[in-house]
Amino acid sequence: MKVVVSMDSFKGSLTSMEAGMAFREGALRAAPFAKVVVKPLADGGEGTAEALVSGIGGEWISLEVCGPLGDRRTASYGWVEEKKLAVMEMAAAAGLTLIPEEKRNALYTTTYGVGEMIRDALKRGARQILLGIGGSATNDCGLGMLAALGARFLDEEGREVGIAGEDTGRVAEIDLSGLLPRRKECRFMAACDVTNPLCGPKGATFVYGPQKGIPAPMLPIMDAFHQNFARRTAQTLGEDFSESPGAGAAGGLGFALKAFLKAELLPGAELVIRTVELEKEMADADLVVTGEGRLDAQTFMGKGPSQVAALGKKYGVPVIGVGGSVTREAEEASKGILKAVFSILREPASLKEALEPERAKENMRRTGEQIFRLIRTFRR
Question: What pLDDT, in 10s, does the model give residues 268-319?
């Protein structure tokens, strides 16, 4: 019997792999003959790099980079030598949480540090770079990232502009002669769960600028800066990418990745599922187990577990769900998607107690064991 376990993290408690491995331990208590394969699951946001590095084998690379306000700081990314794969989260170098709330203003923040991480990976021989672009503090259209990779952005006088969001409005010419040629040998994939264009009322500035500290009177001005950057980019590349779905992600970083690095912008969970080759393992599975910390109606609106379930349906493999908590709405929403859903809570406990990692692991083991004791009953 082959079982594939692919769960998202139980936030505040268990990582994706910790949850999956605990379930596996419990399942093998009851069915030691089973082949239980554990694969990580994440949505492209915080924790994605950790899930992939631990799930497919790799190491952490740390380096000093430029922070969102120009300060030097240490950032890390995952490296899988066998696959020549780098797994990054842009938030490690340019995340909103790196800036105190009173200092947030995306007019002055930069993605330069993200470019430094990419440059380091390319020098290591990366052939694939997976980049989660959620949680950004920036609104610079990826100008900073591209500058770190060797691109030059010049004003009307032929002088180089800065590397922050406000500098996108001063770009008159883009010189790509120094852009790292190794980028052409690498496939870029960005985890992007938004479809916003770069400019306009649904673009990066108007939708996400306020939460990044851009003052209301500056929003239309900043949007005009982005329009200028998009226009100059189209003049340079011969194609306008500003309306591409996801161009407005991460303050326009999605735009730069697609336009200059030919990146694929894909939903985070889909990208992770593809990277860990989950579909390959599911093709001959007898059962699939998925889940996350809280199973509710939103779980089945495109989140990771629902995509795992869709693959199960594709191959005719039954899928069951496991969660720290399972709402009544989840039970209703999961009908026709999952065969059954289970909560791992075994006894009354406060939220704090339920989130204790060791308690959660043991609850997961016990749940896995009970499920497989039941399965053995019907397989005799």
Answer: 888 889 889 999 999 999 999 999 999 998 888 878 899 999 999 999 999 9
At how many degrees (to 10) do helices 16-30 and 48-56 cross? 40
Final residue belonging to a domain, choices 219, 234, 269: 269
Q: What is the average pLDDT across 213-238?
A: 98
**pLDDT tens, residue by residue, 67-114:** 999 999 999 999 999 999 999 999 999 999 999 999 999 999 999 999
DSSP H helices, 57-142, are: 91-94, 112-123
Check whether residue 121 and residue 214 sit in a common domain.
Answer: yes
Q: Are residues 323 and 239 in the same domain?
A: no
DSSP string, 220-256: HHHHHHHHHHHHHHHHHHSS--TTSTTTTGGGGHHHH
Cβ–Cβ < 8 Å for 229, 173: no
Residue ending a domain, choose from 223, 247, 269: 269
Q: Does residue 125 surpass a pLDDT of 70?
A: yes
307 and 159 in a common domain: no
Same domain (yes/no): 205, 96: yes
Domain holding 26, by residue range, is 2-39+277-379
Identify which of 349, 335, 347, 353 has the alpha carbon closest to the alpha carbon of residue 295. 335
* Top-confidence residue, 77 or 347: 77
pLDDT at residue 376, rounded to an integer: 87
What confidence tens digit (pLDDT) does each residue in 272-283 have?
898 899 999 999
Please give the C-alpha separations between residue 140 and each of 144, 147, 182, 229, 313, in angstroms, as whole numbers: 7, 11, 23, 9, 41
Is the same domain home to 115 and 238?
yes
Q: CA 265, CA 125: separation in Å to the nearest integer?
A: 22
> Is 32 strand, coil or helix?
coil
Scanning the chain, the segments in alpha helix (DSSP H) are 16-30, 48-56, 91-94, 112-123, 143-148, 204-208, 219-237, 253-261, 268-275, 278-282, 304-315, 328-333, 351-354, 357-379
Query: What's the pLDDT score for residue 380?
Result: 60
Give the predicted TM-score (pTM) of the model.
0.85
355: domain CATH number? 3.40.50.10350
Can you give the CATH number for the domain in which 148 is found? Answer: 3.90.1510.10
Instruction: State the pLDDT at residue 378.
Output: 79
Query: Are 105 and 153 members of one domain?
Result: yes
